[in-house]
Amino acid sequence: MSLNLIRDRQLVAHDYPLLADDAALPASGTLTVTLARWRQDGEALRAPGLAVGVRIPNTVDVADVWAEVSDRPMINLEFPGFADGRAYSQARVLRDRYGYRGEIRASGGAVVRDQLHGMARCGINAFELRPDQDPQVCLGAFEDFGLAYQPAADHVTPVLRLRGRR
């Protein structure tokens, strides 16, 4: 089994597979559903034996869906392209405004090594790597920067607040 998921800075096997919107619901297991499927079958998806994460498009305001997904063990945010940073904001809102403590997973075409550090600073703790990404190389992204210049969801003390502490 390939390890193409980074969770909490560790390589792990991919879990929470995406269930197609038209697929039959399993009786048990872990899976991810789209927000549309969650809204359609939410009651059935809350059945004992199922651990269900919800994939939220980056076009959705998390304030509009928070009540629906707040108890989910995993929220998957979509990063479809490099020019669209809305999922970064979604992650910050989930962590900072709502205090979400579950897994926030990044998926999509823009989940690549040079973006992982910034995603982690926004509160994302799991990353679905593209097939063309080397998982071992991607792990190094979290060590690329030793200092932070602004506050973020990772609670690293910014450089300006470190001045005078020596």
Question: What are the defining features of this structure?
Answer:
globular, alpha/beta, 7-stranded mixed β-sheet, TIM Barrel, 166 residues, single chain
Give a description of the structure.
With 166 residues, the protein is an alpha/beta fold. The protein has a single domain, classed as TIM Barrel (Alpha-Beta Barrel). It has helices at residues 35-45, 62-69, 86-97, 113-121, 135-139, 159-162, and strands at 5-7, 10-12, 29-34, 50-56, 74-78, 103-107, 126-128. The protein has a seven-stranded mixed beta sheet with strand order 2-1-7-6-5-4-3. The protein is globular.
**Main sheet makeup:** 7 strands, mixed
Write the CATH architecture name.
Alpha-Beta Barrel
CATH fold-level topology: TIM Barrel
For the secondary structure, the number of strands is 7
Gross morphology is: globular
Helix content: 25-40%
By CATH reckoning, the class would read Alpha Beta
Question: What kind of oligomer do you see?
Answer: single chain
SS summary, helix count: 6
* Helical/strand content category: alpha/beta
The neighbouring-strand order within the major sheet is: 2-1-7-6-5-4-3
Q: Tell me what portion of residues adopts beta-strand conformation.
A: 15-25%
Question: What is the domain total for the residues?
Answer: 1
Organism: Solimonas fluminis
Pfam families: DUF934 (PF06073)
Protein name: Oxidoreductase
Task: Give the SSE map.
Blueprint: E1 5-7, E2 10-12, E3 29-34, H1 35-45, E4 50-56, H2 62-69, E5 74-78, H3 86-97, E6 103-107, H4 113-121, E7 126-128, H5 135-139, H6 159-162
Parallel strand pairs: 3-4, 4-5, 5-6, 6-7
Antiparallel strand pairs: 1-2, 1-7
